Amino acid sequence: MRDPSSFLKSEYDDLVRRELDWKLRVLGGPSSPWCTVDGKKVLMFCSNNYLGLSNHPRLKQAAIEAVQTHGAGSGSVRPIAGNMDLHVELEARLAKFKGAEASLVYQTGFAANAGLIPQLAGEGDLIISDELNHGSIIDGVRLSHAERGVYKHSDTDDLARVLAEAEKASPAYRRILIITDGVFSMDGDIAPLDRVAPLAGEHGAMVYVDDAHGEGVLGEGGRGIVSHFKLPRERVHVEMGTFSKAFGVVGGHVSGSSDLRSFAYNKSRTWLLSGSHPPAVVAACLAAVDVLESEPQHVRRLWENTRRFKKAMGDLGFDLGRSETPITPVMVGESGKAKKLSSRLFELGVFALPIVFPMVAQGKARIRTIMNAALADEDIDFAINAFEKAGKELEII
Ligand SMILES: *Cc1c(COP(=O)(O)O)cnc(C)c1O
Q1: Mind listing the domains of the chain with CATH numbers?
Q2: 146 CA to centre of ligand 1 in angstroms
Q3: pTM of the model
């Protein structure tokens, strides 16, 4: 009889043949500016660890101490027996940091989107998404029974069109929810939340922003996109984020009204049915919020480094797409060439991965670089030199 699991090999082989399989690299030690990748010492140029906090002494110390005072695990899900004082403290601290009434922490950002979105809109409702929203939003929307609308990337005229059409629906939609990434992870551009929020207000729609790449990066002291645009808090109903990027640890969160918090934890299945964070994780997240509040130099340095890199790369003639943030794509075009550029950079001591179809459109292959506050000027210049050399060899510049 045929092996019912034979598709595992054949589908994987097919990915390998089309060069779409992930080749997993191994980091031998911390995610630091100079790190060991597959045994080679290279400059890290593609982590989400924007502020270098994943290896910050205060975070490490807080994690060690929490293991000693609270143990290695939490013992349960939060609604039963896994809600420790540390979890409660983190949510209070985060809400204060964000200037929100309340925050709720999920195991990951993905779990926040997959758990909350399907509860916010269901049968008889409409969810409207930016066409380039993150996969975790797409999955959250798929789990909902709501109808779906899409608007062209960051195009508020197109969003107005979708909203106007929605108004004509009969029977009328019960609720409308607009969802957008804050910073788009492949291009590094910022969502026009300053225009989306008032438009939503005119149409009585809720606004949900996924600020995974904006937190710790945008706004006053890294408070995120709502702070960046100085929007009144009540204009953005759900501000979702993650501790896995600039905060340097792991965990998702949503901030907004205390009604949002009570609703979200009572209804999100990912929150209710999955074990809570171990004490070390929560304590490290708490320390990350402390560091953001007390050491503003990291966010400042991140932007100085970003400007230095973008300026030099632009002067060399590289096409940096539409980036406005520390995510700087180096546009190459063809997939094969982007892969060659990445390999050559690795040989020259810079670790930055190619992003190719189907993650981005055909012909839009790129190297996605992500700046880091822990890089010294010499490190950035080292990377620029490597890009110049490899870029000339491959006739990209
Ligand atoms: C990374 C990312 C997530 C997922 O966050 P995790 O906490 O790592 O699960 C969600 N949304 C966006 C836009 C992201 O970039």
Answers
A1: 16-45+296-393 (3.90.1150.10), 57-294 (3.40.640.10)
A2: 22
A3: 0.96
